[in-house]
Amino acid sequence: MKFFKLIFLLGLVVFIEKKVQAQNSCPQTLKKAQDTYDEGRISEVPDILDGCLKSKDGFTKVEKISAYKLLTLTWLYFNERTKAEETMHNFLVLNPEYEINEALDPTEFINLYNSFRTTPVLIYGFKVGLNRQNIGVIRDFSLDNSAIKRGQYKSAIGEYVGFNFEIPLQKRISLLTELNIVGKSYRYTDEILGFANISFTEKQTLAEVPVLLHINLSEKKFQPYINIGGTFGYLIADKAQPVRKDNVDGTQQDVSGPDINILKLRHKLIYSASIGAGFKVKNVISNGYLIVDLRYNIGLRNVVNPHNRTSNTDLVYNYLYVDNDFRMNSFVFSVGYALPKYKPKIKVSKAVKSEQ
């Protein structure tokens, strides 16, 4: 038993020693390969780098980036296009946001780099924000005189949280979509029949999916942008808090009760036009974007389902409330964070596509 323990310990020592040696020797290996390249013995470079590139405990990520760039330059020197493309691909997988230095990078390297797709295939993240409604009345309805403008709407601050997905289409143009859970709220007040003051507070919960054309105005670290498109919303829940206060001959009487579910009084599918602007700041926490967004959604559909306007008898008879036809326009402010996802590959030219 002691013999096997001794063998195990010796094996462990040898393993650790080899691992330490590999970690210590690979930085020197990279330097040796670079010196060999600079001295003009370029054909020796691949063999020098091979061991540390294949070893799990070889080069660090930064060292691998330098090694793959050196190998790419080597294969370009020997006009080995296929091998150069392979090592350039490995280089860009590790370092997708590499920026060409025209003063230092050889023309052949720049041309090969430009033949690769180096833009993100997806930018994804999350947002949190606040919204405020601007109610646009289409037509007044009331148990009182509806020929005159009725009541007042006052918006409350709502919240939303969601995920955003940006798909680049061209250099500065992307398709932007989101999946948001949104809370909206407002209060309506009116005096009915000369004696009843009514207050109607509505709180909606919606799932919203904006589909926007996203246009970046800059490619620098600070990137202002504009958005234009539409937003589709699905009403998940809708509660009303009605209160009626009567004042008859100086005597005040209140009528109130629990929240009322008014989902059936509303169209569940709501859509709007959307315009907005904001900015992204690159390389905030790793290589991600800080996003600040301001948006205005212009309601295109009457929120109220006219077929069910008076279907809730509690609202009509106890609270003397009947919905106006109205649209909900929204100011939305949000802050978010997003990460780019890269997938470098050789770009296929239009000529090659037509031949295929």
Structure explained in plain terms:
- The protein is of the alpha+beta class.
- It has two domains: 11-116, no CATH class; 122-341, Beta Barrel (Porin).
- It contains seven helices and twelve strands.
- The protein has helices at 2-38, 45-54, 61-77, 81-94, 107-114, 313-318, 350-355; strands at residues 116-117, 122-139, 152-168, 173-192, 196-216, 222-248, 251-256, 260-261, 269-282, 289-299, 325-341, 345-346.
- An eight-stranded antiparallel beta barrel has the order 2-3-4-5-6-9-10-11. The chain has a two-stranded antiparallel ribbon with strand order 1-12.
- Strand 6 and strand 7 form a beta hairpin.
- The longest helix has 37 residues, at 2-38.
- Residues 12-23 and 350-356 have low confidence and may be disordered.
Kindly list the characteristics that best describe this protein.
356 residues, alpha+beta, Porin, two-stranded antiparallel sheet, 7 helices, 12 strands, 28% helix, disordered C terminus
How is the secondary structure organized here?
Blueprint: H1 2-38, H2 45-54, H3 61-77, H4 81-94, H5 107-114, E1 116-117, E2 122-139, E3 152-168, E4 173-192, E5 196-216, E6 222-248, E7 251-256, E8 260-261, E9 269-282, E10 289-299, H6 313-318, E11 325-341, E12 345-346, H7 350-355
Antiparallel strand pairs: 1-12, 2-3, 2-11, 3-4, 4-5, 5-6, 6-7, 6-8, 6-9, 9-10, 10-11
